[in-house]
Specification:
This protein is of the alpha/beta class. The protein is about 40% helix and about 15% strand.
């Protein structure tokens, strides 16, 4: 159960010393309870009390870091079952299955999936390397995947093969997914010595629970849970029950991220594979493994993920600035819009499609869309004029500024605020930008 501000207050010195940056101890404790500050910010709490409070206030699902360098990712840390309750914390990762026989074909294919959508890089983050019985081919696949800058999962239950694979790639902090009832002690020792995350699997939930409890008793809490691939029904039920047990029942034995292999569940049916990947993106796959990834699969999946794992309470914004598109220089036409990320990328995309050099001026509009920003007083003639005067003098010598058509009402006031500038009313919708720019004569 989450601790309240008064629970933390009992352990503070109650002197209002302000060392934490807050005016009173109670204000500090309320912010800690709300997740805005860490309890360790108070220098006066006893170490033994700090340890107890930190453990009690930690998310019921443990936060796990796996991978290294550019391929380091955070899993878990979730606190709610449903996004509308608060927000989800760590986005699902997408990966593909590879073996010693398919690694040469798959590596070039996954590298093709690499693009940016609304400021976020979309690519295949994970390679699940399966041991199919031939240790030589397995180790060869590990060597080839090791330099791919992806999070590696070593899907192997043979401790001898697992040890040799870890010797190759342990510096990149892979996930060793192969601990079960029969080998958990040996696999636990390998994972602990290598300092990597251990994946746990079992024939059913009861056995999975007992195996995790055994590993925790041995001191290992750096785990992920494989929900299994016996059937779609069983895997989905396992994923939901594991998450509910951790978050609703506060059972920390099941408080770990999960792995779902939808490639195995779909048995070669690509349409079913994408449908299952969508389902487990919502409920509740931390790592979702497919048999392959192409743009037909990636575009809907990554779009869904981005919508699910953005914080609905925080607008998606881009930085205010002057963005030079299509090789624009200081004499290029100026166009302005808001800093709402979706608006920016749509408008910028249409400008780039036109091929016309444009200086796109983005002002601070609170992360709102054009009409919402105008209605909220965030996009005004005064705010636009102020930004242009302070930031665009040397960058925009062509003093022609195109306004979004939906805020044409700002034209007169903006002309008064920016003497010498020519204010033009643009299109109402981004889809008309290409024609507008190609037809425009300064």
């Amino acid at each position: 159960m989450a601790l309240k501000g008064t629970d933390y207050f009992k352990f503070t010195p109650r002197t209002n010393c302000k060392a934490c940056g807050k005016p009173t101890c109670l204000a500090f404790c309320m912010d800690v309870a709300a997740g805005k500050l860490e309890i360790a910010k108070c220098p006066h709490i006893k170490p033994e009390d700090l340890e107890k409070l930190s453990e009690a206030s930690a998310p019921p699902m443990k936060t796990i870091k796996a991978g290294a360098g550019k391929a380091e990712f955070t899993l878990g840390g979730e606190t709610v079952l449903f996004r509308h309750e608060k927000t989800f914390v760590s986005k699902s990762l997408y990966g593909v299955n590879v073996t010693g026989d398919t690694i040469d074909k798959m590596l070039p294919e996954i590298k093709k999936i690499d693009y940016v959508r609304i400021g976020e890089r979309m690519f295949v983050e994970v390679l699940n390397i399966e041991f199919t019985g031939d240790k030589g081919k397995f180790l060869d696949a590990v060597k080839k995947a090791n330099g791919a800058e992806r999070l590696l999962i070593l899907s192997v239950t043979d401790p001898a093969a697992a040890k040799e694979a870890l010797d190759i790639c342990k510096a990149n902090k892979p996930i060793l997914n192969g601990a079960d009832e029969s080998n958990c002690e040996a696999m636990n020792k390998l994972a602990t010595e290598a300092g990597v995350t251990l994946g746990v699997r079992a024939k059913n939930l009861d056995a999975l629970y007992d195996t995790v409890a055994k590993l925790e008793a041995g001191g290992n809490k750096n785990l992920v849970l494989d929900v299994g691939c016996g059937s779609v029904k069983e895997a989905f039920a396992n994923a939901v029950q594991i998450r509910r047990a951790a978050l609703k029942d506060q059972d920390r034995t099941f408080g770990y991220p999960s792995i779902v292999n939808v490639g195995k569940l779909s048995k070669g049916n690509h349409e079913l594979e994408v449908a299952l990947a969508s389902i487990f993106t919502v409920k509740y796959g931390s790592i979702i493994i497919l048999d392959s990834m192409d743009y037909a699969k990636a575009l809907p999946l990554y779009g869904l993920r981005q919508n699910i794992f953005t914080d609905p309470q925080k607008p998606m914004k881009v930085e205010p600035g002057v963005y030079q598109l299509n090789g624009a220089d200081t004499n290029a036409l100026c166009l302005t819009t808001v800093d709402f990320a979706l608006t920016y990328f749509i408008v910028a995309g249409e400008i780039e499609r036109s091929g016309v050099p444009v200086n796109l001026i983005i002002t601070d509009a609170g992360g709102y869309s054009v009409l919402t920003a105008w209605a909220a007083g965030k996009m005004t003639a005064g705010s636009i004029a102020k930004y242009v005067k302070e930031n665009c003098g040397d960058k925009c010598k062509n003093q022609t500024l195109v306004l979004p058509g939906k805020v044409s009402v700002l034209k007169g006031e903006l002309e008064e605020s920016l003497p010498g500038w020519k204010i033009i009313i643009g299109t109402n919708e981004a889809v008309g930008i290409v024609k507008f720019l190609k037809d425009f004569k300064n």
